[in-house]
């Protein structure tokens, strides 16, 4: 791993990795969920397929959806994680409808839930940059900024946040944003 793909923040580490998030052994995986918590395509679909029906069953039992900019937590089913944190990012319209603030809020809620659950290690995808269309060059600095703030919180149990990015182009965009911090 290149030194430019990681940064020490507080007593933790922010890291970038090209990976399938469903294969990582971490305390919590962040899921790019939809507001109805109904499962979907992309990362959401992959997490539900890999984790099994237990995740959806728990979502249906405990929650009636989740507003954009918020997050909820479930067990992780068959994943190697203990928790899945379902964070709902915004659909991109034009950047003039609160999308950056909603994305910030989704990451902030996800990392706060991870800390509340006592998680030390968290893996996150790039929320809202798939079918929701949020431009990744605008999303990456938001994602990295929120992770840095979460790691810098006094007395946080968080020790590592890794952005698991499936595409090489996404990894390169996040690496550029990290270098600019």
What would your notes on this structure say?
The protein has 181 residues and is of the alpha/beta class. It has a single domain, classed as Leucine Aminopeptidase, subunit E, domain 1 (3-Layer(aba) Sandwich). The protein contains 5 helices and 7 strands. The longest helix has 18 residues, at 99-116. The radius of gyration is 15 Å and the shape is globular. The mean pLDDT is 96.
Any chance you could write out the topology, listing elements then pairs?
Layout: E1 6-9, E2 12-18, E3 28-33, H1 42-51, H2 53-62, E4 71-75, E5 83-88, H3 99-116, E6 121-124, H4 136-152, E7 160-165, H5 168-179
Parallel strand pairs: 2-7, 3-5, 3-6, 6-7
Antiparallel strand pairs: 1-2, 4-5
């Amino acid at each position: 791993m290149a030194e430019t793909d990681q940064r020490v923040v507080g007593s933790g580490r922010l890291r970038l990795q090209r990976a399938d998030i469903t294969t990582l052994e971490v305390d919590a995986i962040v899921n790019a969920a939809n507001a109805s918590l109904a499962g979907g395509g992309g990362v959401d679909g992959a997490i539900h397929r890999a984790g099994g029906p237990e995740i959806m069953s728990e979502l249906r039992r405990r929650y009636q959806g989740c507003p954009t900019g918020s997050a909820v937590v479930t067990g992780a089913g068959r994943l190697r994680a203990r928790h899945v944190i379902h964070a709902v990012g915004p659909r991109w319209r034009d950047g003039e409808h609160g999308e950056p603030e909603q994305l910030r809020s989704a990451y902030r809620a996800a990392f706060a839930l991870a800390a509340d659950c006592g998680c030390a290690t968290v893996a996150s995808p790039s929320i809202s940059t798939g079918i929701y269309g949020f431009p990744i060059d605008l999303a990456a600095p938001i994602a990295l900024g929120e992770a840095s703030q979460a790691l810098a919180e006094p007395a946080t149990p968080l020790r590592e946040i890794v952005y698991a990015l499936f595409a090489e182009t996404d990894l390169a965009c996040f690496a550029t944003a990290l270098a600019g911090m």
